[in-house]
Recover the amino acids of this structure.
């Protein structure tokens, strides 16, 4: 196969990944004298913060995904190829992809992150991840199929295991998912599955740290815990998961949870592509300087989740968040233009706009540098910020209408099992 990319008089910048970082980078180079070649294994951009709403049937996938070609339809210095990049040769300045080798003058790696099971094979084999649209749809089908199947089972213990849900990880994803599932339990499952004893359905959140939302303030942790407890979610903190065989989840505190559904929201690692010399990789991310250049590699840059800017202030790099990715994408584009113009480069400095998480249909916690608040107003802010951040006018409108419908009707409504749940194989190549 041949990527069929024409040579032009302009330098070629190959960008791997159409996530938040890659897109901001490319947009910034509109009308500049470069040839941009974007590679992504999907032909759409995913708004990952709302994946949990796809998994719980609040939103359809097309509300949070946007075709890459449409984003750049007016950008004339841009080419897209749907391809997975398998390796990088920094000596030959080429990337090996599923559609052939592609040469670059400058390489920008913006491949994001992938699910990290921290070597726990049981969980890799039996827990369900939620890192992409296909995975979210898979989870949605699994939840619904388990409820349908539970109706066919007469043994009470087996039945409960089919409807109990455990979420590993008490970060924003785990908390948001637990809140939505808990509301579904009260407002939907109890009505639509009257034959099941829904009151006995358990929703667990398990985290090895002593508080939920550990990257946020203590008050956000405490409030999120209270909000989830009000919704009946059972929270186990300071607790590690030990083993899971697909039916029985064992915890470090000696407890066992019977459940067919363990959702893995406990961690991610950078999506590093083989080929970059060892000194350019640190803890599953690319080690970059303040200008996002990968250590030891000329003309190779990494931005977003996959990049770790290692400094004395950020010994572990910045947190894997959308604003970091977007700010790095913009700055790198500006710096490449400064480099061509022989102007001094500007170092990266993260401007934190704040962090937020929602719990259920009308509560959220918000941490900003100058104020921290929670409750309904926080939820309204969460809603506005996410609507504004979605790519595409149609997606903003569809999402807004869906949320309003959900808010007033208590019923998200998207509970069709169109694509049945498929159990993943352990050796499936990880894709995000
Ligand atoms: C469930 C969930 C909830 C989140 N919630 C929040 C939140 O509330 N707030 C927040 O700020 N952040 C949140 N995040 C994190 C945020 O989504 C990431 O920080 C952000 O997406 C990083 O952007 P990125 O451009 O680095 O990578 P991504 O957005 O992950 O994009 C990477 C792209 O690279 C492509 N790719 C990867 N490998 C290859 C390859 N080998 N070949 C070709 N293409 C490849 C992928 O297909 C993808 O399109 C959440 C993440 C998840 C998973």
């Amino acid at each position: 196969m041949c990527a069929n990319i024409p040579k032009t008089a302009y330098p070629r910048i190959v960008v791997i990944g159409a996530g938040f970082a890659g897109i901001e980078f490319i947009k910034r180079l509109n009308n500049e004298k470069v040839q941009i070649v974007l590679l992504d294994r999907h032909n759409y951009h995913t708004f990952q913060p709302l994946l949990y709403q796809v998994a719980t049937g609040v939103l359809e996938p097309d509300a949070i995904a946007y075709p890459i070609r449409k984003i750049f339809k007016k950008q004339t210095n841009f080419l897209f190829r749907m391809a997975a990049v398998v390796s990088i040769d920094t000596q030959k300045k080429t990337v090996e992809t599923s559609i052939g080798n592609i040469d670059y003058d400058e390489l920008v790696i913006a491949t994001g992150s992938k699910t990290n099971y921290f070597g726990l094979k049981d969980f890799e084999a039996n827990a369900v991840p939620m890192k992409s649209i296909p995975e979210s749809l898979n989870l949605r089908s699994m939840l619904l199929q388990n409820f349908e199947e539970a109706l066919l089972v007469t043994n009470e213990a087996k039945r409960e295991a089919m409807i109990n849900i455990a979420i590993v990880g008490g970060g924003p994803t785990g908390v948001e998912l637990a809140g939505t599932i808990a509301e579904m339990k009260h407002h939907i499952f109890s009505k639509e599955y009257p034959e099941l004893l829904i009151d006995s359905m358990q929703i667990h959140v398990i985290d090895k740290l002593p508080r939920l939302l550990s990257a946020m303030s203590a008050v956000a942790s405490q409030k999120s815990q209270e909000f989830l407890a009000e919704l009946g979610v059972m929270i186990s903190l300071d607790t590690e998961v030990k083993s899971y065989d697909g039916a029985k989840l064992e915890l470090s505190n000696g407890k066992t949870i019977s459940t067919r559904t363990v959702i893995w929201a406990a961690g991610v690692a950078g999506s590093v592509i083989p080929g970059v010399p060892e000194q350019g990789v640190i803890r599953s991310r690319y080690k970059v300087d303040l200008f996002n250049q990968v250590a030891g590699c000329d003309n190779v840059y990494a931005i977003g989740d996959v990049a770790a800017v290692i400094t004395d202030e950020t010994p572990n790099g910045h947190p894997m968040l959308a604003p970091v990715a977007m700010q790095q994408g913009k700055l790198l584009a500006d710096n490449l233009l400064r480099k061509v113009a022989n102007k001094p480069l500007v170092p990266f400095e993260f401007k934190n706009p704040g962090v937020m998480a929602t719990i259920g249909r009308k509560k959220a916690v918000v941490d900003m540098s100058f104020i921290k608040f929670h409750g309904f107003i926080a939820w309204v802010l969460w809603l506005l910020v996410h609507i504004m951040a979605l790519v595409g006018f149609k997606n903003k409108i569809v999402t807004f209408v869906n949320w309003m419908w959900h808010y007033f009707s208590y019923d998200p409504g998207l509970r069709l099992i169109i694509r049945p749940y498929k159990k993943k194989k352990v050796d499936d190549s990880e894709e995000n």
In short: The first strand starts at residue 12 and ends at 16. The mean pLDDT is 94. The chain has two domains: 12-115+269-340, 124-266. Residues 16-22, 39-42, 48-49, 51-52, 84-85, 110-113, 130-131, 172-173, 271, 273, 304-306, 320-323, 325, 432 surround flavin-adenine dinucleotide (CB under 6 Å).
